[in-house]
Amino acid sequence: MYEVTVEQPFSAAHYLKDYPGKCANVHGHNYRVQVTVEGEDLDQLGMVVEFEVIKQALKPWMDKFDHGFLNEIPPFDMVNPSAENLAKFFYDEVARAIGESTARVCCVRVFETEKCSAAYRPK
Q1: Considering 23, 38, 84, 106, which one is annotated as catalytic?
Q2: Which CATH number characterizes residue 87's domain?
Q3: pLDDT in tens, 22-56
Q4: Are 70 and 62 in contact (CB under 8 A)?
Q5: pTM of the entire predicted model
Q6: Of residues 3, 50, 52, 67, which has the active-site annotation?
Q7: Is 106 a catalytic residue?
Q8: How many structural domains are present in the chain?
Q9: Does 50 participate in catalysis according to the annotation?
């Protein structure tokens, strides 16, 4: 099995609705989104998927979220912008961009800090 990983940063503010602690207050993070795509076979260029495909799938969201207030940006105006929910959101967006191919998104990890992250993997 081959894997490729792309990491993209963005900075944003958010708060967690109904959270019983400090994260209920508006605060910010320097996020890092790490997307890993896997495949058993390589294409004619010797790649699982071009890095650029993953970067382009993330770009509109990096542009929209960077220096934004996540709680005001759909779908996070309705869904708590937790690291877990962000990871699932980015998984869905990149999986849609890759489409039907021999490659698939196997994991998306969202770092809120250098030491704290959440990941989403399909079953």
Answers
A1: 23
A2: 3.30.479.10
A3: 999 999 999 999 999 999 999 999 999 999 999 99
A4: no
A5: 0.94
A6: 67
A7: no
A8: 1
A9: no
